Structure formats: structure tokens, C-alpha cells
Amino acid sequence: MTRRTDVALTALAPATWGTTYLVTAELLPADRPLWAGAIRALPAGLLLLALTRRRPHGIWWARAALLGTLNIGAFFPLLFVAAYRLPGGTAAVLGAAQPLLVAVLTVALLRDRPGRPALLAAVAAPAGVALVVLRPDAGLDPLGVAAGLAGTAAMATGLVLTRRWGRPPGVGTLAATSWQLVAGGVLILPVAAAVEGAPPAPDGPALLGYAWLGLVGTALAYVLWFRGAGRLPVSQVSMLGALSPLTAAALGWLVLGQALGPIQLAGFAVAVAAMVLGQLPGRPAPAAVRAGSGQPAPGAVRPRSGRPAPGAVRARSGLLGRARISGRAGQPARSRRQSAGSVSIATPSGSAPGGSSAAAASGRVNRCAAAGPAA
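Structure for EamA family transporter, as requested:
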């Protein structure tokens, strides 16, 4: 698939998450946010696990548990705490700050410095979202702000670690997503039971809402999100998260009749422009040899022409290259004296004559793997 297709499919995830506000307000039982998170994550994860029939192995038990905690188990409850203690607009702006946290974590964990367009977009996106969703009466509850920032940091860390670790060989996105959803859902379940009591008895609209959030807003959306995290730079993926509050605001205008004035429309334009700017290709990842160019990258060791690379053994061509001082009986003394001045060295396996290795003789340079995460 082309890069544009990858971006478009990844953007569907936050756009789908933007429907959560409308579905929760119109269809789900009130005051049961933790149960809503558990019902979203656990059944969707079990469904994907049944479809793929792949379980973690080795170190991936711990990695799946940590990623599930960051992306689901911690993020959902913290998000709901922020939503209950803060106006929706304030919570949305805190979530839109994720690209800034991703930029910091990308430098710390991936050793990759985002370019200026990505940094500018990371600042402009939350500013545009703030213009769309903030209202003059927006409050700042300290606990709510702390929960919102903690949830955003958890999701940002999970996104960067997802990029760093990739997936086990032979394991697809569906299976890896199922591990995280199950781990996160299992973590939320006892918290929901302790805080909110027994699960709610759903009616018809609630069943429809849970089905939408579980199948589309969680199973499908997280598969697309983690797929994009494995294919695209994390800075570009995180920029697409601004689509969630923008979609929620647009649905509020279309379905609930909420007003969007000139300031909100200007904020839309700023946020969309920031997302487009954030999708511009960044700098190429460092590598010892640029792919397809045949030239070493800056800082790579360049072998001198006509000389062997470091560690290579020079082999002499012709009869002298094959001659050895053997001291065999019957060899004339003059011949031995002539050969004593030039000691021949046997050509090692895999080396080519003429003072170069087989790879250098064929015009190829051994490429060093670039330091970075496995994708």
C-alpha cells in the first residue's frame, strides 16, 4: 500500500474515537465510565484473540501486559476521570498535547529527533483544538488536569514503545492488538467493580452503543492505530489524534445542534493545517550506507581505493601470490634466497584477489543496520 493509504487508514482510528462522546451521551448508562471502558476493551480483545488464536510467548507476555496497561488499562480510567472533573473541551486539549509528549519520547527512546515541521505541527494542533472546544467558563480542576496529562502521557508512551518493539516475527496486527485489549480490559475490570459496583443492565440503546464502541471504536480502531504505528513515524501518527476532538465537535454541530462560531471554525482550520504539516516526510533515518546509492553515509568508514578494508588480508596475485616458503628439499639455494624476501599470505575463504574482499570486488559494501526499533 502507498503511504497515503497508510495515513488514511490510521486517521480512521481517531475519527472513530471521536464518536465516543456522542454515543456515550446518547446511548450508554450514565455514571458508569469504568464499566464502559471494560466492556469496550475486554470483549473486543477476546474476539480478536479467538479469531487469531495466537498467544504471546517469551518476553512478549511482559511487553503485551505493559502496552495493554499504557494504551488501555491506564488510559481509559484516567481519560474518564479527566472527562468527569473537567469540561469536555479542557480534557480534549490535554489529549491533543500528545504529539508534544511523543516528540520528547521519540528523542529519549528512539534516538530520533523530529524535524521542524513536526515540532511546529505538534504546537499548532493543540492550539487549534483549544480554539474549537474551549469555552470561557472552562474550569481547571487540579486532579482532573493531572489525570488528563497522565492519560495522555500513558498513551504517548504506549505509542512510542509499540513502534520501538514492533511485533514478534510471524505475528500480525490483529493478534498483537488482541493481547493489549485483553490485558487492558482485565486490568480495568476489578477497578470498575470496586468503584462502580455491579455492571449496568443494558437496554436496547445501550447494547447498540456498546456494540459500536466495542467492535468499531475499539477492535477496528485499535487495529488500524497500531498498524499505523508500525508503518509510519510515531510523530505523524500522534498528530492524527487531533481528529478525535475535531470529529466530536463536528458531530455535536451536526447531530446535537451545537454552535460553531468563527473562532471555532478558525480553530478547525489551524488544527487541520497542523495535521497536514505533521504528515510531511521527515528526515531519513541514519544508516551506515544510504539505500540504493552505493555511497556510505556521513560518518561511515570509507575504504580507500586499491587498499583492503580494515581487517582484510591482502592476497597477492600471480605466481608470487601462490608461492610459499616451504623449504622443500631440492629447491636451489638461489631460488630460496629470492623467495625469502617476499612472504606470501594465504587467501582467506571469502576474500577476492587484488587486495579486496569478495563484497568489495563485486561493488557491494557491507551495510550496518541502523540503530533503532524493529518495525
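The beta strands are 351-352, 356-357.
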